[in-house]
Structures are given as C-alpha cells and as structure tokens.
Amino acid sequence: PPLQSLYHWVEMRTKMRIMGLQGAAIKPLNEEAAAELGAELLGEATIFLLASGCLVLEYWRHQKHQRHRQLEHSAAWDALQDEVEHLSLMLEALQAQVQAVPSQSALEELRAQLQEVRTQLGARDANLLPRLTQIAPPGPFRGKGDPGLGLL
C-alpha cells in the first residue's frame, strides 16, 4: 500500500528531525502495520470530512438566519422611518392649524372691538331714530310694510 508507506515515511522523517536525528534510515512498515495505519487514516479522514461538512452546513444555516434577521430588521427600520415621516407630516399640519387659529388674546381683542362697534351702532341708531321719524312720509304704510326706508 503506497499511501500508508508515504504517510509512514513523512511521519517518521518529521519525528526524527524534531528529535535531531538526521540521515537515519526509515524501515518500511510490514503488511499488518500498514493495514492498521491505513484503517486509522481512513477513520480519521472520515471523521474529519463529517466534522467539516457539519461545520460548513452550520455556517450556511447561520448565514441564512443572519440574512433573514437582517431583512427583518431592515423592514422594521423602514416601517419606523415611514411612521416617523407620517407623524412629522401630521405634526406640520397640526402646527399650521394651530397657527391659523387666533390666540386667546386676539379673540378677546376682537370681542372688545365687536362690543365697541355694537355700542357705536346702538348710539348711532338712537340718534337716527328721531330724524327718521321726521323724514318718513305719513301714510297708510307706516309700520311693518313701509315701502320707504324699511326701518320702521
């Protein structure tokens, strides 16, 4: 078996160099030792390949999970940004409405002006009433149906 012989030669050469022995001859393995070493190598290679496969599959699964989670976070972030944008537009609209509504002091001022105008009109009407009775022609239409000024 050439594979076991090569493995044995590399292994022994490395061990001898580590121990400081140079140039020593490496004896070939007998048939039984070579078969045992081959079975051991095959078992280790099988375990190594299975473990590597499990690691690769776990890595792919983890990456898929990470991508899925990142997409969820991304979607949630986009939804939050849309909500913030919507709320800011609503806030601007409400601020415009609040600015359009006159303040309490402006309302009080307008009420005072209205009262003043009413007072002036009341005084003017009181002054006009005696004059109007003098101007209105006597006749059958005095009162509600007066075609003249329509004030009596």
TrEMBL record:
Keyword Transcription: no
Cellular component per GO, a single term: mitochondrion
Pfam families: OPA3
Keyword tags: Coiled coil
Signal peptide as annotated in the record: none
GO biological process, any: regulation of lipid metabolic process
Coiled coil: 77-127
Function: May play some role in mitochondrial processes.
PANTHER family reported for this sequence: OPTIC ATROPHY 3 PROTEIN (PTHR12499:SF0), OPTIC ATROPHY 3 PROTEIN OPA3 (PTHR12499)
Family: Belongs to the OPA3 family.
Protein name as it appears in the record: Outer mitochondrial membrane lipid metabolism regulator OPA3
